[in-house]
Every structure is written in structure tokens, then in C-alpha cells.
Amino acid sequence: MSVSRGSAAQKAAPVFAALADPTRLSLVRRLSTEGPLSITRLSDGSGMTRQAITRHLHALNRVGLVRDTWEGRERVFSLDLKRLEIARQYLEDVSAHWDAAAARLKAFVEKDKG
Amino acid sequence: MTIRTEKTETTDRIEKHFEVTATRSRVWRAIANSEEFGAWFGMKLDRPFAPGATVIGRLTIPGYDHVSVEIQVEKLEPEGYFSYRWHPYAIDPAIDYRSEPMTLVEFRLEETAGGTAVAITESGFDRLPASRRAEAFRMNEGGWASQSRKLASYVS
Description:
heterodimer, A: alpha+beta, Arc Repressor Mutant, subunit A, 3-stranded antiparallel sheet, 5 helices, 3 strands, disordered N terminus, B: alpha+beta, Alpha-D-Glucose-1,6-Bisphosphate, Chain A, domain 4, 8-stranded antiparallel sheet, globular
């Protein structure tokens, strides 16, 4: 276990929690493929009201996954990619942890063969 | 050392494959004897591994010695297979992990010409709802996830 893992886990946990919802995940996906979008565009074809979409965007905004700016009279949301990177990194840490443990196991059994 | 990470379609498991130059019985002792397991893993376990046993481990890594890990042993098949369940990354003492699903960790040993082939798998990540989302980012290599990643490394 690396010393950085504790703080990585603490940073990643709220990001995961915010993403653990199909609507929010699809919002993130759209912002990722289509770039910054207004609430109107995000609601169109979603089968959800603007109010519902706005609530989900706020949840993503609270953990820093999206940010909003005003363009004229429209509020436009875009992805904050650094936060996404934290979430991705966390899962790679699971894998890296096993690499390190495997290397320690190998060293342990090879120093004393029998 | 070469550690092969199995690339699978599923987002549910992580697989590691590697070979060691030690006999299978030596490797078995290193994983099935809780004292030896703790020595290389980096924790002090409070009792021997036995099927059905709950073993509590305290990390021995400086700065993490307040963290305890609960290991629920499932199967011990001498010199071949060892499995247990735990909460992955349950290292934040402020969080009660007991209500969360556990992942399954499995060790498989096979004799080879030069020693022993070891396979370690951890599975059950799909049952952790939040982690599954994160896994989706990683696994969707050709799509929006990899694009985001490229952009993220560019902007950070």
C-alpha cells in the first residue's frame, strides 16, 4: 500500500458517489463527447425535465466534475477533466497494488527456496 | 519481474499472472500461512487462515498501522487454491465498510518447469456501484474515456 493511497481514496470517493447514477453518468458522457452544453440541450431528448437535469448537474458540480459558465442568457456546463482523472487513477491503483504485492511475494519466496 | 495483467472484457475483475523460482509447496506456505502472508503483504494477522475463519490484519506500514483489514477465508485447497473476501481499499478508519459488498481474492498455484506459476485474481468490483462507474472510464479505451484522459493529461 502506498502512502498516497489514503488521500487518493478520500479524493476519489465523492467522485465515485456522484457518478454512481445512470443519468449523471450519461450527462458526463454527453459532455465528454459533445463538449460544453446548455441545460436546454442536455434536457432535449433525455426524457427528463430541465429541473431534474439541473439537479443532477448540481450534484456533479458539487464534487467538481462539471463547472458552469454563463453564455449570454444560457448557463453552459462543461467537464472538469482533472476530477475524472482522479476517479480513473483510483481504479488503476487497485491494479498497481496487486503488482506491488506480487513483487513482494516473489521476493519473499525466492530468498528462501525450499 | 514480469507481471501479466489479464485484459478481460469484464470490468468485474483484475487478474495478475507471474512465475516465481520456488517450489509450489514453498509458495503455498507463503500464502496459506497467515504469518508468512502478513510478512510479504505488510500486515500482522491475528490468527491462522482456516476455511470460514475471520482473520483480522493490522497493517505494518508506517503511517498505516492504525488500519485493520478483515479477511473472511473461503477455501484452502493445499498447494493449489486459496480464496478470501475483503473490502478493497478499506483503509479509511472514518468509514464503516461493513455494509458494502466484499470482493473475492483468489490465489492459484501451478507447477512449472522453472518453479511455480501464480495467478491472483480479485473479482466482484461490479457489485461496488461507485467503482463500477470508475471502471467504465478505464475500460472504454476507444471512446470518450480515452479522449477525456488525453485531454486531462494535457490540461493538468
